[in-house]
Amino acid sequence: MQDTTKRVALVVGATGLSGSYIGRLLKNNGWTVVSLSRSAADLPWSDRHIAADLKDPAAAKEALTAASDVTHIFFCIWSREANEDENCRVNAGMVRALFEGLAAAPLQHVALVTGLKHYLGSFEDYAKVRPYTPFLESSPRLPGANFYYSQEDVVFEYAAKRGFTWSVHRPHTLIGFVIGNAMNMAVTLAVYASICKHTGRPFVYPGSPEQYNAVTDVTDARILADQLLWAATTPAAANTPFNIVNGDVFRWTWLWGQIASYFGLEPAPYPGHPTPLEVQMADAPKLWADIVAKYGLQDIPVGKLASWWHSDADLGRTLECFTDMGNSRALGFDKFRVTRQSFYDVFDELRALKIIPS
């Protein structure tokens, strides 16, 4: 058990994947946890919830008076805008609005969750500069606008002004479960496999040949939470960026068959080109409603479970993506997750909650 004397955490983006996992872990370790999201939420691990939209600085400042005792921030949100210049403006503005609203808080540490677009470039410049793999935490920033850099710069600015420490955490594709999360590959693939099993459609890998054959990795949401807590409570980890992945690597040529086996399916032969889920699953709303009725599942629309577009983007990359964790490993962070089990654990949870068929 950690010494949690005067440790009050504010989890920003508390209903999302990374936010919900770190919130639960902090609560289980005896912290006082304040949650923040745009709307009201009943979270069993939260001691106090704040509904605030950080895009509205004035309203956020008023709402954040309820968090004046916060010592640690875990910032786990972003907003996708029309272009990268707007992404930079809005997302940096949300971080700034948070700090301005917590002007009197006794902040000790701020953790910012970003991702691998730090190495790959923004949505508009994605992979225009081919990065070295594995991605190194010491790599310089890429040229051009990138809202991750803009968020970091605001954190660095306020850390210098107010004397708190910071950490930046860069996960790969997150594997976990939260209903309504917009970037949730494990749930998306579970829904896809369930539809294939129900309809007899082939369970075909939908992405690019480069990604199908390349070495890659993913991030279990639990190991991200582990690293967030470790960095916030390890003095030697102060003011450092960290990649965070499970610690193993794989190829989809293997893992696709493992996922198929879990669902009692045969993996379809790979056609050698992308077959995007957004196209394959155009009729998913009607099919999912039929599956819900047949198996007595929770009545959750497929659009709140599956994020076809995001899994298509991850699985459709045309370059190799995997990361090095040198910074945290050198400082003693030794957590590890087996990727196949990361997927299986989510599938088991979905079945237990009657969200997908058993």
Give a description of the structure.
The chain is an alpha/beta fold and 358 residues long. It has two domains: 8-171, Rossmann fold (3-Layer(aba) Sandwich); 179-216 and 249-319 and 339-352, no CATH class. It has 14 helices and nine strands. The strands form two sheets. The chain has a seven-stranded parallel sheet, sandwiched between helices. Strands 7-8 form a two-stranded parallel sheet. Strand 4, helix 3 and strand 5 (109-113) form a beta-alpha-beta unit. Helix 6 packs across helix 11 (284-295). It is globular and about 60 Å long. The two termini are 36 Å apart. The model has no long low-confidence stretch (mean pLDDT 96).
Total number of domains: 2
The CATH superfamily of the largest domain is identified as NAD(P)-binding Rossmann-like Domain
Order of helices and strands: EHEEHEHEHHEEHHEHEHHHHHH
* Portion of residues within helices: 40-55%
Précis, in short:
The protein is of the alpha/beta class and 358 residues long.
Tell me the layout of helices and strands.
Blueprint: E1 8-12, H1 17-28, E2 32-37, E3 48-51, H2 57-63, E4 72-75, H3 84-101, E5 109-113, H4 117-120, H5 147-162, E6 165-171, E7 174-175, H6 185-199, H7 209-213, E8 219-220, H8 221-233, E9 240-244, H9 252-262, H10 277-280, H11 284-295, H12 308-315, H13 326-330, H14 339-352
Parallel strand pairs: 1-2, 1-4, 2-3, 4-5, 5-6, 6-9, 7-8
